[in-house]
Specification:
Length: 171
């Protein structure tokens, strides 16, 4: 749970940058990659991150750029281009930080209705970040299945060890 806005801002800035790095590594030709037809593909997974970035803060009374994409609780269909998805995410991310600019740390203790429960705003922001991390991890698995290079996130990916002047660990 976040108790200080600056801690959330710093964490969000880094996590959204990492998400954009993942988005940047996905070409349009790989958007249909999924484990099977019953699960989200990379396109839907990326678009879901845009959706949750807009929808969750909306429950806190924040209207982010892209709010028009959600009608009656349903997100618009995903665009066919990763660059459009990336752009929507980037704009909503910046919008989130701008929308809390006038907040004080005390507002992180206020409670809102979140999916039938009462969550403090500091918890809602923590869930927003961990939800994003969860799906980003799923996306990297799909990227491996599509033979895409996975960007380094919290340390080097297999392909990233050479950037550190090291060999990848043995499997």
């Amino acid at each position: 749970m976040f108790r200080v806005l600056e801690d959330f801002r710093a964490c969000w800035t880094k996590e959204s940058e990492l998400t954009l790095n993942v988005f940047d590594a996905i070409p349009d030709g790989a958007l249909a990659q999924s484990i099977n037809a019953e699960h989200r593909d990379l396109q839907r997974m990326a678009w879901h991150l845009v959706e949750s970035l807009i929808e969750m803060p909306g429950r806190l009374g924040l209207e982010l750029e892209g709010a028009h994409l959600i009608t009656a609780g349903v997100m618009a269909d995903p665009p066919a281009s990763m660059s459009i998805i990336r752009d929507a995410y980037a704009k909503a991310s910046v919008s989130l930080l701008k929308s809390i600019a006038a907040w004080t740390d005390a507002e992180l203790s206020l409670e809102d209705d979140m999916y039938g429960e009462k969550w403090k705003r500091g918890v809602s922001f923590w869930v927003l970040i961990t939800h994003q991390v969860h799906h980003r991890g799923q996306m990297t698995v799909l990227m491996r299945q599509a033979a895409l290079k996975v960007p380094s996130i919290y340390g080097p990916a297999k392909e990233g060890w050479s950037d550190y002047g090291m060999e990848a660990p043995k499997i």
